[in-house]
Task: structure prediction
Amino acid sequence: MMCLAVPAKLVALKETQGVADLHGNRVDISTLLVPEAKVGDWLLVHAGFAIQRLDPQTAQETFAVLKDVEAAANAGGDP
Result:
């Protein structure tokens, strides 16, 4: 099984604890590893931690790739 980091938009932040929007789902995250993060930023999130800031275009490109992977998996493609 593979672990994956995914883009999410930071919608709330208090110190190093934030809430990110992940395709309509709100998830609690830590911004401890990305101290420059601010509300409105796109972040790469893995295991509840923001690990990198992303520009909006990169976030959208990543979503497109993940959508292609999901489609291949649903079509019976190899993992």
About this structure: The domain at 6-74 is CATH 2.30.30.140 (SH3 type barrels.). Strands lie at 6-14, 17-22, 25-30, 42-46, 49-54. The helical segments are 56-74. The mean pLDDT is 91.
